[in-house]
TrEMBL record:
Alphabetical GO biological process terms: proteolysis
GO terms assigned for molecular function: serine-type peptidase activity
Gene3D superfamilies: 2-enoyl-CoA Hydratase, Chain A, domain 1 (3.90.226.10)
Cross-referenced InterPro entries: ClpP/crotonase-like_dom_sf (IPR029045), Tail-specific_protease (IPR005151)
Pfam families listed in its UniProt record: Peptidase_S41
Protein's recorded name: Peptidase family S41
Residue span(s) of domain Tail specific protease: 26-202
Domain of life: Bacteria
Annotated source species: Caldibacillus debilis GB1
Amino acid sequence: MELELSAYPKEKYEPCHEIREIDENILLMTLTDFENPDKIRALIEENAEKLERCRYWVIDVRKNRGGTDAAFLRLLPYLFPEGKNVLTVEEDWKMTFHCTERNYHLTVEQIQSELRQIRDEGTRKTLEDFMERWRKNKGKGFVRLFEEDFEAVIEGRRLPEKVVILTDTGCGSSGENFVEICKKSPKVTVIGRPTAGVNGYANLAVKEWDDFQFYFPTSRLDKMDKVKNLLDLAAHPDVYLPWTPGHLQEDADLKEALRFLKGGPAQ
């Protein structure tokens, strides 16, 4: 038996950062990555009136390729209840970084490249602090760059009242961190399927040779000693919707999100 195989060009990635109103009370925000904090900031500023008016949000990160956690920080006040919200780092998020000389130089080179493109002052400060921690520990092998207990205070907003986040296995890296943080808010319900579960080894460095790029992780979560598979690392939905062939005909995830926001039971 002969099996004829064909080669197809890789589909070009087209980033999507958009907000559209589904009706006067519900908006849909689609974020396919967190690569550029300035784009997320601009999206928020350009749609401020909608964001402050709509009672319900749906945030679609099903195909979010990740990027930097700093990109989604400006969204968090909307996603937590009005008033002071304190977040702390849990044991599951603790990690070590492999601080070799080469990893240091590759990481700094990457951060400096990002700093040349980013204008947001908060993001720049975060990246500069990260770079300084690498500098202080270069050549020391596996190191906890963040030994101190981390605590963040988020001043939440009244609106939106409810938020649904749509997830799938195409959501990875910083996209997964976004989902995990949002799950701590009582305003948020996650609907869909578990995320990719790729953060066990993260903070990628890249080595380039001509037209070839080799990416490799520089950090390792402590919980890797305990997990058995990627599902143990994934962010899991509050409402699990298995994928079916029907998803090819209609957006069943969005349909369920709208049913939930309008007061119907989650199915």
